[in-house]
Amino acid sequence: MRRAALILVPYLWLLALFLVPFLIVLKISLSDIALAIPPYTPTLDLSTGWQGVKDFFAALDLENFEFLTTDDLYWKAYLSSVKIAAIATFLTLCVGYPIAYGMANAPDHWRPTLMMLVILPFWTSFLIRVYSWMGILSTEGYLNQFLLGIGVISTPLTILNTNTAVYIGIVYTYLPFMILPIYAALERLDGSLLEAAEDLGCSRISAFWLVTVPLSKNGIIAGCFLVFIPTIGEFVIPSLLGGSRTLMIGKVLWEEFFNNRDWPVASAVAVILLLILIIPIILFQRNEQKQREADQ
Amino acid sequence: MGQTVFEPWNDPDAKPLIQFRNVSKRFGDFTAIDNQSFDIYEREFFALLGPSGCGKTTMMRMLAGFETPTEGTILLGGQDIAPIPPNKRAVNMMFQSYALFPHLSVWENIAFGLKRDRRPKDEIESRVAEMLKLTRLEQFARRKPHQISGGQRQRVALARSLAKAPKLLLLDEPLGALDAKLRQDTQFELMDIQEKTGTTFVIVTHDQEEAMTVASRVAVMDHGRIVQADIPAKIYEQPNSVYVADFIGEVTIIDGTATKVDNGYEIDFAEGQPTLYCQTDKQLANGQSCHIAIRPEKVSISAEKPADRRNILQGKIHDIAYLGNISTYHVKLANGKIVKAQTANTRRLAHRPFTWEDDVYLSWSDTAGVLLER
User: Fold this and answer.
1) How many CB atoms lie within 10 A of CB A162?
2) Region A260-284: what's the mean pLDDT?
3) Distance of CA B43 to CAs A7, B8, B197, B202, B315, Å?
4) pLDDT tens column, A117-146
5) Between chains, do B164 and A200 touch, taking CB under 8 Å as contact?
């Protein structure tokens, strides 16, 4: 009985904060745009009784989803989001792995401090940190001033409002999510395994590729998903740092919602986005499951 | 037909495989190895025995290449190994934790070293098959390390370290993680494999029984020094110091002063107690203080005073340790000194001749005790 009650808590949480909002979004995506408040029809009118419910369901249709297939903006935006997320994830891995490796091999008394430094940026608002990147990357920004000052370049670089700025923003923001799971995997690595590999004829470098990397695989996979999944739907970074040519689905969704005030189409975009994300989320959970089994 | 005895350390012409020449190793202020020189010969099963922190593991890690000597040189087959990194040495190591690669199968673990040498595929396959057969692991080749038992993992580790046919195999507490019964079986298996492959083995252990069982020579270490290195029987019967006598097996140490008599010395150890006689070639000054180390199994225990022995002590049984096959009697002398005596339990326990608080006589032969200088 107590166990059932314990299990019930997370399910109620999910029901209230995930399933119910999702059903509302799903319902809006099946509605039609209207000049009203709220800006869609039908709305459920219970005063007319059973007939009202029937009318309500009869008015729902898949029109908005059909619309998404007619304009190539949408599938291009989805594809571009996946591409940007994939490249950004790879870049984050390239930056994050050496940091995690360095942390795991640092002297014991240094590790808590290094861990603190990785988490420290979370203490400042995410939005402010992204804005500060605008100050760094703009044409008159600190980076260009510095490069001009030391004479590396003669004309300022255009970084802000390009995809490069988006990548910098994503890598910077999501780096801790990459570092922490990889660090956790590397920290558990038994040092005698590397000695054994060397003893059996490996150089330091091949021991890294043959032992360290395979044994931190689960950390790498977890880190990649933790970066990839939220990056696909990322809105703040591309809208603040990206240019007009940066096409990401988060931005499209925002424009549908606030500029066009087309809630039904915006909802349809969100539903499709969720369906796309379900695949990597399932893969991520399978990886976690496998790791748990291996630990036993 | 006489079998030739394997004793290369007594042969002046024999070339040692490993030579330690005045090797010292210091970690900061701590001296792990203190100016040691000794030789290990080909096909030897050499045991480094000592309590934890005595430097035995450091000695082994220097052979493997994970540590370099602070001073002195180590020669392998006449060649200084200091500049050779661990991955280029003809030395392999079996780790205490086994250090099996958890992401690779048993087969891949054993093949790991061979693949690094870029040997041809069929050669790798036949060598791994040979190793699997040697360690009786054929049916586990496809399993991962976490899917097999501790004893099987130990054999995988051994097979992996032997696969490259090293000149020298290092074993770091190889049986430490096994339970007592399995350990005994595995000791004989190790000796068998050592003999079959003809590899030189150096084993590090803190278990004196294990060292005595498997090794051709045992080096007893203390505080970074080898106190005595010899065949197990000599280590046991002729320890060169109280430390060795005390570390190996059970022993009673009696302190006293020596007086030259006949072919040995008479030791006066306590007022009101008879002197003890110990036959020896050693030369001590009259009145020099010394120790006698006497093994309990060489002490006879009797109710009547034996007539034909020179060493006789009288006391009361203070404690009895019953070990099944043998019993150890702790006999308290009049001056409070405890002397241990051991008897084999050839008869049923109900017929035990002595019990607590019995007055008994202890006696031993002229050659049973070992006289040790202080």
Assistant:
1) 17
2) 89
3) 64, 9, 9, 10, 49
4) 999 998 999 999 999 999 999 988 999 999
5) yes
Strand partners, B254: B292
Is B159 in the same domain as B240? yes
Same domain, B163 and B268: no
Option in A196, A202, A211 nearest B95 (CB): A196
B262/A contact by beta carbon, under 8 A: no
Tens-place pLDDT, residues B290-314: 999 999 999 999 888 888 888 999 9
pLDDT at B309: 86
pLDDT digits (tens, 9 = 90+) for B265-298: 888 888 888 889 988 888 888 888 999 999 999 9
Task: Give domain status of residue B337, yes or no.
Answer: yes
Domain containing residue A221: CATH number: 1.10.3720.10
Q: Please count the structural domains in chain A.
A: 1
Is residue B237 located within the same domain as residue B282?
A: no
Q: How far is A284 from chain B (nearest CA, A)?
A: 20
DSSP B90-143: SEEEE-TT----TTS-HHHHHHHHHHHTT--HHHHHHHHHHHHHHTT-GGGTTS
User: What residue numbers bound the domain in which B41 lies?
Assistant: 8-246
Residues A241 and A137: beta-carbon distance below 8 Å = yes
Please name which of B269, B247, B261, B240 lies closest in space to residue B371, comparing C-alpha atoms. Answer: B240
B216 and B267 belong to one structural domain: no
- Per-residue pLDDT tens digits for A46-72: 777 788 888 888 888 888 899 888 888
Per the CB < 8 Å rule, is B99 touching A294?
no
Residues B58, B196 within the same domain: yes
Contact residues, B window 56-95, toward A, CB-based 8 Å cutoff: 64-66, 85-88, 91-93, 95
- Residues B112, A190: C-beta atoms closer than 8 Å: no
In a domain, A78, yes or no: yes
Percent of chain B topping pLDDT 90: 61
Question: Residue B1 domain-assigned?
Answer: no
Quote the tokens at residue B325.
């096959």
Is B192 within 8 Å of B134 (Cβ atoms)?
A: no
Say if residue B152 is exposed, middle or buried (CB neighbours under 10 Å; 0-12, 13-18, 19+).
Answer: middle
Optimal mutation site among B61, B95, B147, interface A, most CBs of chain A within 10 A: B95
Which B residues in the span 288-327 are in contact with A, Cβ-Cβ below 8 Å? none
**Residues on chain A touching B88 (C-beta within 8 angstroms):** 201
A117 occurs within a structural domain: yes
Please indicate, yes or no, if residue B230 is contained in any of the structural domains: yes
Say if residue B242 is in the same domain as residue B257.
no
A48 within some domain? no
Measured between CA atoms, how close is A218 to chain B, in angstroms?
11
Mean pLDDT taken over chain B: 90
In a domain, A210, yes or no: yes
**CATH code at position B188:** 3.40.50.300
Chain B nearest CA to A108, separation (Å): 18
A92: containing domain? 71-261
Contact B164 A211 (CB under 8 A): no
What's this model's pTM, rounded to 2 decimal places? Answer: 0.82
